[in-house]
Write a structure and sequence with these properties.
Blueprint (H helix, E strand, L loop, with lengths): L1 H31 L25 E3 L17 E4 L11 E5 L34 E5 L3 H4 L8 E5 H22 L3 E8 L9 E8 L6 E7 L6 E2 L6 E2 L16 E2 L11 E2 L5 E4 L4 E3 L4 H5 L5 E4 L3 H6 L3 E2 L6
Parallel strand pairs: 14-16
Antiparallel strand pairs: 1-8, 2-3, 3-6, 4-5, 6-7, 7-8, 9-10, 11-12, 13-14, 13-15
The protein binds zinc ion.
Zinc ion (ZN) binds next to loops.
Length: 320
């Protein structure tokens, strides 16, 4: 078993070294032409080298140009999720997202889905403590696909919140605002037989105008934590915070509603939870409350009407 792991790890290292060389060559090629040609398949799927993590949660690839063709552009909404492979891993999730696909019902628990490499582990220094999230390929806010095993991978908190979420918010807000459609494709990139993806490739292109256009790679890493991508095992600073069990204060809790087995507590009198980044407000038991970063999460005792007057919008999912 140990030998097996060692083999996988050294294979990954040489893959990465090889990747640096390929990336260099690719960089030279791109520098030579002013406008990179559109590719019909996503770069990672086509076998291009993966970028190296260098401190930023995501990087533009393919000149930030998505690989859709003119023929792909459609104003008819659809969504497609690849079948799991022989190892149980997700493949590309692809959609044309319009308002008609966006969720209208309250989100249900996804805790019964166990994506490949899944471990519920906590470390010191991670926002909301858990290393891994059940990470939607296409965000729930975009297509309302929730407990779909073909749309959930084991992703670090860092990739979920710092990597993918800013792009998801941009797309959701754009569709919300314009009623336009966005071609949207997310491809998890698994190296070899690894059970944990190295990262995800995200492509988006708005159909009716050029309001949204990007092609990025988000790194499935967590700063300060070592991850064995073959198995999902990890190592890092020991978790020293309070245990989940025995939250005895009188706060509002959302036990049983979160993706982890976590219980969030809020001060007595909490009516709603604000996301100070997206300016949405949620019921305390909304799954989005678990997903948002601590720094954006603010309990309030104000009424619905007061919050709307202050410029906050009710969440589509929990409909406060
Ligand atoms: Zn909500």
């Amino acid at each position: 078993m140990w030998n097996q792991k060692q083999n996988n790890m050294s294979k990954n290292t040489s893959l990465k070294k090889c990747g640096i060389g390929l990336l260099f060559v690719l960089g030279l090629l791109l520098a030579g032409c002013t406008k990179p040609e559109r590719q019909t398949t996503p770069a990672a799927v086509a076998g291009s080298a993966l970028p190296e993590y260098a401190g930023e949660p995501s990087v533009a690839i393919n000149g930030n140009v998505p690989s859709f063709t003119e023929a792909d552009l459609t104003t008819t909404s659809f969504e497609h999720y690849s079948d799991l492979d022989a190892l149980g891993r997700c493949g590309t999730a692809y959609a044309c997202i319009g308002r008609d696909l966006m969720p209208t019902e309250e989100r249900e628990s996804i805790s019964e889905v166990h994506p490949t490499g899944w471990h519920a582990v906590k470390y010191a220094g991670i926002d909301r403590d858990y290393l891994y999230n059940r990470c939607h390929l296409i965000a729930y806010s975009l297509t309302g696909e929730n407990a779909n095993e073909k749309n959930l991978i084991t992703g670090t908190r860092y990739m979920n919140k710092e990597g993918m979420n800013p792009y998801e918010i941009r797309v959701a807000d754009y569709i919300d605002r314009t009623g336009n459609h966005v071609l949207y494709r997310v491809t998890p990139v698994f190296e070899g037989d690894n059970l944990i993806a190295s990262g995800v490739e995200m492509e988006a292109q708005s159909v009716e105008d050029d309001g949204i256009s990007f092609h990025v790679y988000c790194f499935n890493v967590q700063p300060g934590i070592t991850i064995d991508y073959a198995t999902g095992d990890s190592a890092g600073p020991a978790y020293t915070g309070e245990s989940d069990a025995g939250t005895t204060n009188d706060g509002v809790t959302n036990a049983g509603k979160t993706s982890q087995t976590e219980t969030l507590t809020f001060p007595e009198g909490t009516t709603y939870i604000l996301n100070t980044n997206t300016l949405k407000f949620h019921r305390p038991d909304c799954e989005s409350v678990y997903e948002m970063s601590d720094r954006n999460c603010q309990p309030t005792d104000k009424s619905r009407e007061e919050l709307i007057q202050e410029g906050y919008d009710p969440c589509h999912s929990c409909r406060p």
